[in-house]
């Protein structure tokens, strides 16, 4: 038994909107343990909808449709389904009554076009829509085939999914065995290097381990099929331990954790505070740190020292050193970190200075060259050189610079 | 001739990520005037990929794949395509050389698993990836069928699309009668209000006008079908003029312009400079301003004054006023803006202080209350109160606060 998601809507084909409905339903199917191998998007066109239906009905048992249930002439899902399965449409008095009441509630009368929404295939069960006017259906047009339809409006679809579809699918025996997953996150190691180290673990079947990489971060997702969270944990825990051993200091957290939240937790545990001095990231490091609710407990703020005058005025960087070594240098990174720490009176100071590009690079100091400075609670400061290259562009250099700074601080706190 | 998008990735089936690639390519196909009726998502499974390929090759002429080009064993797109079309894979020396060089550039050596990425079907053209290690292909496995493959990483896919796919598709005759569009951007007006004012313009057919709203910003996309950019401009220009009149001061820019880039242009034109003082945005305002290449010409930096001690130490905010009026107040917003302007010596000072939540709100000062301060080149300072509410969450309050600050500065510079 497998499910398939079919989203109907020309706006998806035109790229006007993201397909959030497919993502939501996919996540829900995984939670219920319903296997799901295909998603299709097709426009509001009966011939093409039938073509998709033909393919889907031949390979899946539960077809989940979104979109095309509205009152306008281009909403064709229900009548195309009825036509495909050679079943007459029947007007349902309870839907007319429901729509009439909803309109009355808003001081309006039902428009004739809404009448169409009360026409459902004979034998189909109503999948009620308590939010909007378009109901869906739960229907078995063939013995081993179930069709569920939802409107395309995400809020209505989600409501109906929670209120009616989940109880229905559970009544059919689903939800006893679900997929549970945990994502381990790594920084400073490439996807291929980590995958090679993980070796045979990537071939295991329950749990499975799958690598993903994005913006310099590598993730390993461990997914188990199990009858409960506890049973899944029993499968996932030993694999997590192995993978964390393999990742070593590159492993930094899991699931919802971010580099900023992990740094925050470490600072909070140590009763320490942090200030930042940012040049090329221009505020992005502070932005990441303050994404975390409650970050004011350990993050005090800092300076956006984009112009050299600010490095001198707010951070006390030596102007002769700036002239001799340049703003993008080991020494200036250290002075920025030490300066923001001492001026603000925090335990730690963290700085970033670099060349984000596209302009400003030289042969000696190319785009992508970044220095990160760390001033520790003992007043020592250190700096670290990174070369991120210029091929991935300005936004990427800035993002990985801020993340690398957080990662460097994480390691420094850990080594205390 | 029609195109079809096939996205390969188990993470899409598990609902872990939104299918932004499908949306991007859909938009691009529309721009080129290439009809596109189906999108499919399938997992990293050769049997199912072949099944999808069978269906797609039977109904479309241009198959565009994303995902499954990485170095790990579950990346199967290329070999499955070769297998389906019974074509041998051949190792391409130029890809090995390219990957080796990219790794060397980052001071690393190519891992053996990357070798797999150099195996392409015989006869396929390389679709180069200047950003990452995985190249794609442009291939005609049958006379009337073209296959293009892209990695799943959005930044790499988009780069490759722009650099190689568009020129290729244009060389095949596409893009002559295309859809041309222009997006007008508005801040500080709701979608429904703007749509009501636009009235009958929303019903026009060539060009069409469609409203979108996202994170407080409202966009009107004007799309024309025409044989050239110039012909499209003739259709779009008069509608743009009407819509800009309707939007009044809420209109701020179009297409790639952002509030930060518009503010930057205004400052550059006036020969003026800017410094910021951020509390609740924690660096997000500086981050937005420095996203713009060349922003160092007018943006000097500022202070992240998250903790009150920083407001006093770096900005000279009066500590008695802080105690009496609170950090989130008209007076403190003004002092922050004036303080950062005078301490850094810029023409303008811009500040944000507010309660981003979820905690920290009171009845008098609820979550979502934000003050924006503007200090102008004449040394006057003003502040503005916003109430963004708490239902949309912390990230939203922070984002619209930073945008509102930029918008406020934009209007202040404009009124000079």
Automatic annotation (TrEMBL), chains A, B:
Domain of life: Bacteria
Segments forming domain MoaB/Mog: 4-172
One Pfam family it belongs to: MoCF_biosynth
InterPro entries listed in its UniProt record: CinA, CinA-like_C, CinA_C, CinA_KH, Competence-induced_CinA, MoaB/Mog-like_dom_sf, MoaB/Mog_dom
Family named by the database record: Belongs to the CinA family.
Name this polypeptide is given: CinA-like protein
Taxonomic source organism: Zarconia navalis LEGE 11467
